[in-house]
Amino acid sequence: MNILNSKSLINHNTFKVHANAKFFLNVKNENDIIELLKEKKFKTYKKFILGGGSNILFTKNINGVVIHNQIKGINIKKETEKETTIEIGAGEIWDNVVQWSVENNLYGIENLSLIPGYAGAAPIQNIGAYGAELKDVFLELEGINLDTIKKNKFTKADCQFGYRNSIFKKKMKGKFIITKLQLVLSKKKKVNILYKGLHEAFKNTNIKEVTCKKIREKVIEIRRNKLPDPKKIGNAGSFFKNPIISERTLYRLQTKHPKVPFFQEKEEIKIPAAWLIEKCKWKGHTEKTCGVYNKHSLILINRGDATGKEILALANKIKKDIYENFNIQLEEEVNIS
Question: What total of structural domains would you count in the chain?
Fold first, then answer.
């Protein structure tokens, strides 16, 4: 094992904030993880799992062992006439997985193009975009329990998927490292362009046949127009979740704001957090070191040398303002450490 001491994490988080790990280890297979967990020297230290760092805000140094997942591989596990089951190493860059699936003419994750981060984070967050979520194609995952050092499998039901949520953000938070996951993708053409922004993007073109490749191209185009490139501007994508509200709250909002946007899925009513933030005039707001992106109000940005605490302070000011104006509590999508 090549364990590094006092390792800077500035290049391991897309917010580009300064933080150090007391110990840092790149793991490339399950044996690396097991060897680390059995090492007496590190028994008492907290283990911190890190992938692409695209959904994390460091507000302090990590006084423990950062396990950087670098387990690679995209393999076909099973094929039928209609479907292909693929197995993905948790350390694969997620967008590379989407690109691979599109190149192989497999449908199911093309709407999730250009989402930053590693594949191992996808089930933790139940990533979603443009009317699709990971759970729609998820089969199972494997990994190692950090306490028992035993391998475990989690089925779709075991993962308890919710809106940007799973068991790995609740009961199993910080207790499990995902090593690989399996997805079931469709060989048959199966397009999903019902999401308003995506539907409108296709409506305004002369594209005659919508394919997974065309959807990926359109999603990438939309995201690049709306979202800052984390290589150029430090950010972690959408900082807040869209709040789920009651019918009573929606009615109350509609009395003051008749055109409030909302969308209903089964019994859940969501309103765009971006709309709330824009109504409170935070879009494009700048502070000395950080701010709110001027093209998308859900994205907080590092203007150059912000600390995690400064970005968190801005987030808390926005949350307080939304609550005072709408009596709605925003919840972070980004993990705060």
Answer: 3
